[in-house]
Specification:
The protein is an alpha/beta fold. About 25% of the residues lie in helices and about 25% in strands. The chain has helices at about 35-40, 50-65, 85-90, 105-110, 150-160, 190-205, 235-240; strands at about 10, 70-75, 95-100, 115-120, 135-145, 165-175, 210-215, 225-230. It has an 8-stranded mixed β-sheet with strand order 1-7-8-6-5-2-3-4, with helices on both faces. The radius of gyration is 17 Å and the shape is globular. The mean pLDDT is about 85.
Length: about 240
Amino acid sequence: MSGPSTFPARPYTPANPNGPFPYSSQDLTPVEAGSDTTFYSMPRLVTHIDDNAIFNLRRYYAEALPRRGRILDFCSSWISHYPEEIDLANKRGDVEILGTGMNEVELQNNPVLSKWWVQDLNTESEARIPGVEQAQLDAATCTVSIDYLTKPTEILNGIRSQMKDGGHVHLAISNRCFPTKVVGRWLKLNENERLNMVGDYLWWSGWREIEIVTVVEGSWMKDPLWVVRGKRIGERDEAIGR
């Protein structure tokens, strides 16, 4: 990311940075812990945030995502909400967009994905990226789906291990969800606590320079939208505190 952002951001600070991961397996178990494969077997060619949130998420991605390299959209579906600038870079061959999700039909209908594959990250927590060597990602995104992952630190650590130094992960969050499929702790928290919970996910999976970005201030007429983002820091930079 370069240049000033039009979206306000605040730093995330872990409450106990050297302590254990602050969530139990019970906290990360959905109300209905049935098969995700069955739940997501029917294609849902719909959007899960309102048009205003989508418009502003595209604006955020236009600022935040690289125009060259390789981007992973995990928990993807039929639309990634990427802006025209990223789509054009993809068509020129300057950027490759990879997608992993739960439904084959949805992924087939996503026009920006250069490559895609079906994977249930709740049963196989390391994202498989066919044909990509370690540390070859430049950025990763996840749109309104981080609250469904039952092994978030394993998943995010695996993505970090495949990210180039300086690469960012962007986790977009709203207040909509399938209440039976989100992890149980999510439903017990207010919005600010949820944002800090996602910050905890990133901290305990090794991401640093974590920020909480307000993309849309919610109201009774508008869906709220935030992005919690983190950066992969190289071992040398982390040792000297950068």
